[in-house]
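Example (one chain per record):
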Amino acid sequence: MKDYYQILGVSHSASEQEIKQAYRKLARKYHPDINPGDAQAEAHFKQINEAYETLSDKEKREKYDRFGSDWKRYEQAGPGVDYGANADFSDFFESIFGNRRTGRAGGAGFNTRMNGQDVEQPVDITLEEAFTGTQRSVQFSTPNGNPRTITVKIPAGSDTGGRVRVAGEGAPGMNGGARGDLILQVRVLPHHRFERKGSDLYVTVEVGMYTLLLGGQAAVPTLSGKTITMTIPPHTQNGRTFRLAGQGMSVLHSHHHGDLYAKVQAILPTKLSNRERELFEELRQIAEGQPA
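Predicted structure:
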């Protein structure tokens, strides 16, 4: 007894959508045009079509679930087409994969035009590359087995989860169907100094204690490689964050940039001279209201 559910690789409680998805996947894998001259693949392909022809029809599926693969014996004869194991299942391909063309393809008689599948390729880039934009060389094999390399541009402002689509560079179609697309799945690697949040960047800047107390200037690095001079007002508290407008990340498909947020971190002296210690003791006494 043929188990149609097992042939399609789905459970007996599978939904119509799950059955359709399983059929699409298997049909592409075992199609005679993909496996020319492979009798085993062609036989499996016919079984897949037979299983789908039954399970995709609600009434036929109910009869199959009740009577098994011999359900047709229990069905009253009537007008219409009897789709057996050797039938031409082009009509089913047309309803699922798209248009149909005239003429016949291959020895098995399957003539449905099928577009190629999209090919997804992960790619890692640095934060600097995401800031300026970059490119990657992607190598793959053509249908005749020859290697081919294409260069794909990754735009500035790209972020993790972004997708770069290259039309017509995916898997080949069948029977005149269009090639699928190549899709690069972008992942931006962590940076040792900058943290990215959307189009904004965050960085920690070390500032001397005297500059925080008395005011002054601090050098702030940017992802572009330039250094910006930031004014520190007197009495700046440790951990305060300053916003530098327009100095952040590139915005995708735009000439604009996000903001850069610089958090100051106090640098305390690790060693004091005797005179410095005396002065700090004097300052503490003044702060505590004691006579110097």
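Caption: Residues 76-109 have pLDDT under 50 and may be disordered.
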